[in-house]
Amino acid sequence: MSATSCPLSIPTLDVSAESVTRALRAARAPAAAVAAQRPDIRVVLQAARQAARELAVPPHPDWLRHACVVRFAASAWPVQDFHRCVLSCIGAHWLGAGQPYGLLEEGPGVFQVVDGRAQAAAALPDPAAPAEFRSDCVGLRPAFRPEVVSLTCCLNHAHALVGVVDVQGLVAELPQGLRDIAMQERFRNARPAWPGCCAGMSGQAVALLRDNPPHGVMAMLDLASTCPARPGDAAALQVLREIARLARARANWLAPQPGEILFLRNQHVLHAERSGRGERRFLRAYWRQSLLALGNFAGTEVPAMYSCARTLRGG
After folding, report:
1. Global pTM?
2. Which of 3, 6, 160, 178 is deepest in the core (most CB within 10 A)?
3. For residue 63, is it within any domain?
4. Residue 109's domain spans which residues?
5. Closest by alpha carbon to 163, among 91, 250, 244?
């Protein structure tokens, strides 16, 4: 995965073709499950546990402070979505990301297919085009807010880019007056399906900001649909415009390639996408650390789990 700029350090974990082959050989599953159009997540997790035990790589949550790329060798990248989901689960295990959201609860889906043919005018994405940065937690019920989002690249003929930006840095760059406004409940989400104030401007978020200088709270903003709660609030609108401007200026733009999985700490970073002309296909998943004991995943002892609140506080 190449980057067009590097204001944020995003580590890459390279996995050899030999390791991928060993993992897939150990990930035993019925042929019908492997060939299914929508992989059964329970069968996927069972196969991923077998593969994780075979590779015996302990979890390292410190690799995923903001974002991390797990790059499986393209020469050994499987063609079935089942095995791609298995490798995504293995990568999530290595990073301490937890369990894919949707296994135990009703939710937006487990591995969502993000594909299509981009009809952009240019063959390559326009670096100057506006980008709507967001996190993927505002629209979900707070009890199921994902701590990590992953994007598994299966095909990228559209030269799609994913922009990632550190929220703490954005908030730190706001002038003091705008920073004070950002901590007030003067914002709401304009999407009717998401009632009430924007999660990023809730009382809990304000308390977190005051207890611990900005780290992961403003990432709850969806800059594509967050707006001032009161029409005509020019100061609140200025806050949103300044955050959006800083995000565009500071973003690290990555060009995913097949076999690469981008993991994002959902409450610490914002992300956006740009695409040129052509086909693209990604698998997107949400992860919760609190839903699965990682030690049970691979049969090994691991560091203590991080709760959602501790993640917000940077713990």
Report:
1. 0.79
2. 160
3. yes
4. 2-118+144-159+258-265+276-312
5. 250
